[in-house]
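dude i think i finally got it to work??
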Amino acid sequence: MRSDRIKKGADRSPHRSLLKALGYTDEEMQQPLVGIVNSKNEIVPGHIHLDRITEAVKAGVRMGGGTPMEFPSIAVCDGIAMGHVGMHYSLATRELIADSIEATVMAHAFDALVMIPNCDKVVPGMLMAAARLNIPTVIVSGGPMLAGKVTDRVERPDVSLSTVFEAVGGVTAGTMTEEDLYEYEEHACPGCGSCSG
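look at this
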């Protein structure tokens, strides 16, 4: 196993001691070490729920005879970064994500990897890392956000973030009221997941 380089032999006693500080048992250290990377955070709607998916993945790794070891990835919400200097940083995060995952996996000698991404910079960043690492890797998507509903709109009851962007243009053009825009704003993103629309 790749992970033997951090856990096998007398000269790896300090390494095992550090793993024991994390709560890992001798039995767990003898199993394949499976890195579980996710981008869960409280600033991106597409990532707020990834911890729940991660717990299910970790349970599956344990059932399969592996030892899951979770670590984080950064993420930026393009929708929130848009329209100000923040958008200058969005694309750069793709490389940071790939680099940080590669560094973590190589430094800790994982035997395999499960990636739990969402959204349009994190997914390619994680895929880039997977290609560089060339170890068994499974990708589990966080899934899409459901569309919202505006119940008193017969012509367009389903609303999404795209609808809100279009509505901003409608207010600017004078074809929509700010009250209608606010109603879309309130209902377009009803929960977690990558942006719909």
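Residues 4-139 form a domain with the Rossmann fold fold (CATH 3.40.50.2300).
im so relieved honestly
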